[in-house]
Amino acid sequence: MHAHNRGTVRTLSGIAARLRMHRPDISVLLTWSASARTGDLAWPDGVLGQPLPPDTVAEAQAFAAHWRPAVGVWTGERLPPALLCKLRETGTRLACIATASDAWQVPAPIWMPDCTAATLALFDRIYAQDDAAHRRLRRHGLADVDLRQAGALTDTAPPLSYRRELHEEMAQILAGRPSWLAARVRASEAGDVLRAHQRATRLTHRLLLFLVPATREDGKAVAALVRQSDLRVGSWDDGDMPDENTQVLLTEDASELGLWYRLAPVSFLGGSLRPGSGGEDPLEAAAHGTALLYGPNVGRHLASYSRLAEAGAARIVRDSDTLATAVSHLVAPDRAAAMAHAGWDVVSQGAALTDALLTAICGWIDTPAETHAAPDGDAA
């Protein structure tokens, strides 16, 4: 898979993780353009990463001979004719994800004729993200290429697992009681979360907070802060179930976060109030149908937060006071439901293309292509 920018590196990495979840026998190489900064990204198991080599015949031949991929997925408007031609010759099935706004770029000397159409014809299948992209591709006369319209390429996060019977039991215990979740909270921001909850309970007296630290180490520090507060706390890991007097239900780590996302109509995502960690993936939370609150320090997932905020699915808070105000406002079921629905729309936008891509990849790998020469008008 090739990513043309940093955001697409993260998206394709997530798709690769989903692919490996269903087919652990498949290994993935992720390449990226020189402009994509990837130094702080972590790769899923079974996924390798490297910058794309220069598009020369020698480099393309060496790349194809070394990796011999069964399937290649290309994103971005800059096409490497030498590499795509060599991959096609050696039997790689090629798919391209096309946007509507970017013009194709095929590097070639100025005196050479335009080989954009010939390069696009090397793909077995091209996914157009919208009508405009589909029309632009048809104008290139790609008669033998399978053109499909499948929506935008966006991050998709599969829902976390949970115990269904425990969810049903907790839902009965809560019985419509207002609640919210602080997920993957760092020790440095736990004090802000607790102050926000204390303030919110003045307006919503039965309000319950599910407090989930990011790690067990954070959990120890958070537990110490909770003990110092005036809040009435139950320990989930000690077997406590919330009663009418419980104001905070504390867990040691995020191992059962799938349960809490499903119970809480409003979720604050930790690692965002204080600088240092760059925030948590908001699409994971949005996939569970919860309204999202987050702090200003979300640089690692800024594009996802921006997309959710523009859709009305997420709201930024700056400190404990603004967090308390947002929680008090959103615990009203109709307000939280509207935000959660907007978040689900954002998450589902990328599902169609992701599902189609995973199906095609698995099908192509299970039915290897024969090696063949490039079509007439060799792009390389």
UniProtKB/TrEMBL annotation:
Protein keywords: Cell membrane, Lipopolysaccharide biosynthesis, Membrane, Transferase
Any Pfam family hit: Glycos_transf_N
Gene3D superfamilies membership: 3-Deoxy-D-manno-octulosonic-acid transferase, N-terminal domain, Glycogen Phosphorylase B
EC number: 2.4.99.12
Domain 3-deoxy-D-manno-octulosonic-acid transferase N-terminal residues, every copy: 1-147
GO annotation, cellular component aspect: plasma membrane
Stated name of the protein: 3-deoxy-D-manno-octulosonic acid transferase
Organism: Salipiger aestuarii
